[in-house]
Write a structure and sequence with these properties.
The complex is a heterodimer of chains A (323) and B (341). With 323 residues, chain A is α/β, with parallel strands linked by helices. Chain A has helices at 2-27, 45-59, 73-85, 98-110, 125-128, 138-151, 167-182, 197-210, 226-236, 254-260, 271-288, 311-319, and strands at 30-35, 61-66, 90-94, 115-118, 133-135, 156-161, 186-191, 216-218, 244-248, 265-268, 298-300, 304-306. In chain A, helix 6 runs parallel beside helix 7. Chain A is elongated. In chain B, strand 2 and strand 3 form a beta hairpin. The longest helix of chain B is centred in the last third of the chain and has 27 residues, at 230-256. Classes of the chains: A alpha/beta (323), B mainly alpha (341).
């Protein structure tokens, strides 16, 4: 009797202390750093940053989100090395170049810091050592956009790319290419420039001059400066309404154009989630040891279409800075 | 010829005076002020750990390698705006050579080196023989090489990103000359930088060639009149800058195992910035290799220091710009006041 009571007492005590520990683990503030491959203040990455900050607030995590001042893998690697020195509880990085960033990610893992990845690197995050990858699969998203272009009647597509060399942009164009070529159409890739609108304008003008049968545009980033230039160029060339226009990731400029019918659709990779989810997943892993993504480790987060049917709702979200 | 020499060498001054009047003293004071500043606000966040220190020394080493040769060229009165593109292009030669053409590493490196020598020679000839300003020649080179990097990689490998260099070269021991860690997380490139700084400083201050560099930049006509081979000096320096670009490219490609069409972008300005922070004049005739090394250290410390200090990255570029300006102001202020007293 006495023994039973003490056993019960022990068990209760253990339970109490266990729940106390659990509560303690939850309360303890975590420190998580995110490193991006380009500047963290453009219209895309600033939404990712919003997601990171919101997750930090919601989950009691001290967060930092940093990146080089322009696309620069070397500098991203240097920032990861510095991030390790700050001894965070967890790290998440965009793997714009797996070969280049693997040594830095390994250093973090060796230092006992769990690493997850987001945005770029779907094809190689496992080899690098990242636990979970939150991103759009560029090839898949491109394929989806390509199929949709074909369904709208596209046969001769130009895929615009403003960062020749960036894997995910290449993947999107390759995805579009695969889908359109499968349907018997043709895709050519045209480089544009974020820094210089006149380059973009010239590239599109000469593409149409060379091949007037082009009937669709895909690939380009909708949140960048190019859509305004493309819109103007199409008007000048008297092609407005004759060419199917589609983008990846919306910007405030392009959403009204969807409403007006100038843009058929945009494919979004939901940037807010790309910031929020890695923080949430790392916090859950650090506190409870659980991992999402199943055996592949991929949490797919792209290929979401924005068109006339949902553009109003998305516009409100974008205005609030959370899309 | 004597008039073109730095004046500290033309007459004997008291030792203290000679030290404080050196152009790098102000820069050194600037970098110390910034370092102490970051040690105070970022020290508890890793700025003072070995890994933290290595992180800014690595950055300083990379920009310092090209900064050293660019300084010599600036002192001789010429610019090279194509150095960043040279890093990208020669890196692509190494990556394409090893992964696509199946070259052994030494051959790929030799190809890149040969190209750099030819390119530097061609630029030098255009500048000295045809009298085209180096600003224009190398601006053309900036676009030419960057475009060629994209064009070649895309036509050979179907994409402007080349990975898998480490697999291609396997265990070739030559790679450890450029890649790998010296100590903890400090890169081998650090040693190259220090070596280059020592060689550069000796050449500039202790050799006849160094005197020629000052003379050529100070007054080309006077230099020519006194029998200095102005053309040869400039061509050699253009080649030296290009070759240092290959060195940086080899370090980056072999330690990262990949090349892409963005590598080296902006290095042309970073190199010039470090030179100017270190007291080198953009109009030629004066400058210091040690000063540039301090300038490179300044850039590394500011860039990583802002991160350790936990600055919101929306403000990163603005504060980076302000701090670099501050470093130069401290430099000027210190030099003026110290030399007065």
């Amino acid at each position: 009797m006495k023994i039973t009571r003490s056993v019960i007492g022990l068990a209760a005590g253990a339970l109490l202390s266990a729940s106390g520990l659990a509560a303690h683990a939850e309360d303890k503030q975590l420190y998580i750093i995110g490193v991006f491959h380009a500047d963290v203040s453009n219209s895309f990455s600033s939404v990712v940053k919003k997601g990171v900050e919101q997750a930090g607030k919601d989950l009691n995590v001290k967060v930092e989100f940093v990146g080089p001042d322009k696309f620069d893998v070397v500098q991203e690697g240097q920032l990861i090395e510095a991030a390790i020195a700050k001894k965070p509880d967890g790290l998440f990085v965009s793997l714009a170049d797996c070969d280049a960033l693997k040594p830095m990610v390994q250093q973090a893992i060796d230092a006992g810091i769990p690493v997850m990845s987001f945005n770029s690197g779907a094809s190689c995050f496992k080899q690098v050592g990242s636990l979970v990858h939150v991103a759009e699969d560029g090839l898949e998203a491109g394929n989806g956009a390509g199929e949709r272009l074909v369904a709208l009647g596209a046969k001769n597509v130009i895929c615009l790319n403003h960062e020749v060399g960036n894997a995910i942009l290449e993947d999107r164009c390759n995805g579009i290419k695969a889908a359109v070529e499968k349907a018997g159409g043709k895709v050519s890739i045209v480089p544009t420039s974020l820094a210089d609108p006149s380059v973009t304008k010239g590239a599109i003008e000469s593409a149409f001059l060379k091949d007037p049968t082009i009937d669709a545009i895909g690939g380009e980033w909708g949140g960048g400066p190019s859509p305004a230039v493309i819109d103007q160029t199409l008007t000048e060339l008297n092609l407005q309404g004759k060419v199917i226009v589609s983008y990846f990731d919306p910007g405030l400029d392009t959403l009204p154009m969807i409403k007006e019918g100038k843009i058929a659709f945009e494919t979004s990779q939901v940037p807010f989630n790309q910031g929020y989810l890695p923080v949430e997943f790392l916090a859950a892993y650090l506190r409870y040891g659980v991992l999402p993504g199943g055996p592949t480790g991929v949490v797919s987060n792209g290929g979401f279409f924005i068109d006339k049917t949902n553009v109003d709702k998305i516009t409100d979200l974008v205005k609030g800075g959370i899309y | 010829m004597t008039m073109a020499l730095p004046h500290s060498r033309t007459r004997e001054l008291p030792l203290g005076r000679r030290i404080v009047e050196r152009p790098e003293v102000g820069a050194a004071i600037g970098v110390i002020v910034l370092w102490v500043f970051f040690a105070i606000i970022g020290g508890s966040d890793g700025f003072l750990t070995t890994r933290g220190i290595a992180s800014y020394l690595n950055i300083a080493a990379q920009v310092g390698i090209v900064g050293t040769t660019v300084t010599l060229l600036l002192i001789a009165g010429e610019f090279d705006l194509s150095i960043g593109s040279m890093v990208g292009f020669s890196g692509m030669i190494i990556a394409l050579g090893t992964t696509q053409a199946g070259m052994p590493l030494w051959l790929a490196l030799l190809c890149a080196l040969a190209f750099a020598v030819l390119y530097g020679y061609a630029v030098g000839m255009l500048v000295v023989r045809w009298n085209i300003p180096s600003f224009i020649v190398t601006l053309a080179g900036l676009f030419l090489l960057r475009g060629a990097t994209i064009g070649f990689s895309r036509s050979i490998a179907q994409q402007p990103y080349i990975g898998g260099v480490k697999n291609a070269i396997g265990t070739d021991p030559l790679q450890y000359l450029f890649a790998g860690k010296l100590w903890e997380s400090l890169d081998v490139g650090f040693l190259w930088w220090i070596g280059l700084v020592i060689v550069g400083a000796i050449v500039l201050t202790k050799t006849k060639f160094g005197n020629w560099i000052f003379a050529v930049g100070g007054s080309p006509s006077a230099a020519r009149a006194s029998g200095i081979p102005v053309a040869r000096v400039k061509i050699i320096l253009f080649i030296a800058v290009s070759v240092s670009g290959v060195l940086l490219a080899a370090i980056q490609v072999l330690s990262l195992g990949s090349a892409d069409s963005f590598r080296g972008q902006g290095k042309e300005f970073e190199a010039a910035i470090t030179a100017v922070i270190g007291g080198t004049s953009l109009s030629g005739g004066t400058g210091s290799i040690i000063g540039t090394a301090i300038g490179a250290l300044t850039l590394g410390i500011v860039r990583q220091g802002l991160f350790f200090a936990g600055v919101d990255y929306d403000w990163y570029q603005a504060i980076l710009g302000l701090l670099l300006l501050l470093a130069v102001i401290i430099n000027q202020f210190a030099r003026r006041n110290v030399s007065k007293s």
